[in-house]
Amino acid sequence: MKKGIILATVALSTSLLASAAFAAGATGESIFKAKCASCHPDGGNIMNPKETLKGLKDSKKIVSKIRKGGGGMTAFDAKAVSDADAKALADYIIKTFKK
Ligand code: HEC
Known about the structure:
single chain, Cytochrome Bc1 Complex, Chain D, domain 2
């Protein structure tokens, strides 16, 4: 009997973890669409076509660009984009715009 409860608990927490990971991915995408896609549609760059989001690999550099902006890009402080959201955006960009 006890074993059954443990198994049920393990199954439940695994599915909770899986849905949390899914939600994080969806968040990166929805924030991107809300705050970044106006200048970076499909990972491009309408203001400076040489500085696209394609093939970026370093999430720290992406987070730092989000915070500092510059070269025509808006800077987003922690009120506009939280640390967790900045990280989610970086993960989304790296995963989505490979080329
Ligand atoms: C007002 C238009 C605008 C918005 C909004 C904007 N960007 Fe940018 N972004 C730019 C421009 C212009 C550059 C090129 C800046 C430069 O030359 O330094 C750039 C550059 C970048 C880079 C560096 C690209 C590289 O090749 O190194 C990253 C990363 C980036 N943006 C991410 C974002 C994210 C994430 C958001 C949303 C939170 C965002 N941007 C919102 C205009 C924008």
